[in-house]
Specification:
Length: 100
Amino acid sequence: MDSLQYLGLLFACVAITLPLERFARVYRRPARLAATLLPVVAVFAVWDEIATVRGDWWFSARFTLRAPVLGLPVEEWLFFLVVPVCALLTYEALGPRDAR
């Protein structure tokens, strides 16, 4: 069950922020969302891969599904997507009104 904790945390982040979509309309603008996510995913994936190869960073087999994709656990790839989307939802829903 420990191997599902990382996924559970990511699911909780999505579940908590999903109602904000009503106000934020992040998912309804997929091109804009993709343009926001692609640089984040690219930079942090490269960063994580370098840190992992150097031994500066590692992933516990106990807390991951042991299903690496391009050298990183699936959960890490999901982290790169989920956390920025949750942050964007929160910012768009609760941030300054004139920024829209």
